Automatic annotation (TrEMBL):
InterPro entries: F-box-like_dom_sf, F-box_dom
Source organism: Mycena venus
Domain annotation F-box: ranges: 1-44
Upper classification of the organism: Eukaryota, Fungi, Dikarya, Basidiomycota, Agaricomycotina
UniProt-recorded name of the protein: F-box domain-containing protein
């Protein structure tokens, strides 16, 4: 039994475990001493079916809810009985020190599936001074008033993933609450993005309305690019870090001049259009992002076969063909990180091919500037 081990050893074991392992054992670990509980219960993932277990745990040991900082709760469509929603309200109100809250799941649920008392509880949680991240996942017909309230609540990081907003027949308000969020992640389907951008950035909003935003995570594939560019243009004077999901990279990016931007991250899938459009995009950076310090490129999907990779290795990106060229045009650039996202561990022949290929595309970068890696990534929602 873990609880029979010396406390010092238990704590070392817990520190070495990743978050997913800790979550998987959290609801059966109440017998451990407080220092261990503090580590284990810091991050909780509570599926809908486990709501009663979590309520029983918090009722039997109220101090445990005080350890919870990151909470993920799952909503299921039209299957949660009334008492289950009451349990969720109890869980949310018990965790007084939440810093990260994710509500939703892989299956689309309706906002109106939550009864009014539960909706009220969610509103109350937003007022917590400790809460710095809120993520809504897979929820349909979220009221526009709730989205507006979230943006002005002071929560630093907001993720809207796979949601859509309720159609509002009322006129837009003449007074707009100040947007206070610093990083907005908007990863929604093509039908849902325009209504949300219209809500976030109405035509009559005052200048500087989005000046608090420092980071944006946005889709930049062809049918979503226009809406994402509206947000980028509106934050052109304050944006420090855009994370852009380019999909198959069917067109090169056409960004406005971002003079204060320090870092940019691009994510895309291997495709026939990738290399020429990436070449054009990188060449434009000396004009549109002259002060960039960090460039992050993430490649998804299976690598092209070795023969096709070998054929392309003869052509480096012109901007990075020599050290003098990029230093003259991008004088602040200090780091280029290229990552191949794969569930496989990186020390494989495929990763060796990727590593060699990337270094051939950036021959002007020294090892202190260019970093190449492979594997998963830790921050999917905000990347």
């Amino acid at each position: 039994m873990l609880s029979d081990l010396p406390q010092e050893l238990i704590e070392k074991i817990l520190v070495a475990l990743d978050v997913e392992c800790l979550r998987s054992c959290s609801l059966v670990s109440s017998s451990l001493l407080a220092p261990s509980q503090r580590v284990i219960f810091r991050s909780l993932l509570i599926p809908n079916a486990c709501f009663p277990k979590a309520q029983s745990l918090f009722a039997a040991a109220p101090h445990i809810s005080g350890y919870v900082r990151d909470l993920h709760v799952e909503l299921l469509p039209k299957v949660s009985p009334q008492n289950q929603n009451g349990v969720l309200s109890f869980i949310l109100t018990s965790c007084h020190h939440l810093q990260f809250l994710c509500v939703g799941g892989r299956t689309l649920a309706e906002w109106d599936d939550m009864p009014l008392p539960l909706q009220s509880t969610v509103h109350d949680v937003l007022a917590s001074a400790n809460l710095h991240t809120l993520i809504l996942v897979g929820i349909c017909n979220v009221p526009s008033s709730f989205i507006s309230h979230v943006l002005s609540s002071g929560i630093k990081r907001i993720g809207l993933c796979g949601i859509n907003v309720q159609e509002s027949k009322s006129r837009l308000p003449s007074h707009y609450e100040t947007v206070r969020t610093e990083h907005l992640s908007l990863l929604v389907n093509l039908d849902g993005i325009k209504p949300i951008v219209d809500l976030i950035l109405p035509d009559t909003c005052p200048p500087g309305y989005l000046d608090s935003i420092r980071g944006l995570t946005l889709p930049m594939y062809r049918n979503a690019e226009a809406q994402s560019l509206r947000l980028i243009v509106a934050t052109v004077n304050t944006l420090r870090l855009p994370r852009l999901q380019c999909g198959a990279f069917e067109t090169a990016l056409n960004l406005p001049r971002l003079s204060v931007l320090q870092e940019i991250a691009l994510r895309f899938f291997w495709s026939v259009d990738l290399l020429p459009h990436l070449d054009i995009t990188l060449a434009s950076f000396s004009t549109v992002i002259p002060n960039i310090e960090i460039l992050r490129l993430t490649f998804h999907g299976a690598l092209p076969d070795r023969e096709n990779l070998a054929k392309d290795r003869a052509g480096p990106f012109p901007l990075f063909d020599g050290a003098c060229a990029y230093r003259e045009r991008l004088p602040c650039l200090a780091r280029v990180h290229c990552h191949w996202r794969s569930r496989q561990p990186s020390p494989l022949p495929d990763f060796a091919d990727f590593n060699e290929y990337i270094r051939g595309k950036f021959p002007g970068l020294s090892d202190t500037v260019l970093e190449v890696s492979g594997g998963g990534d830790l921050d999917d929602i905000f990347y």
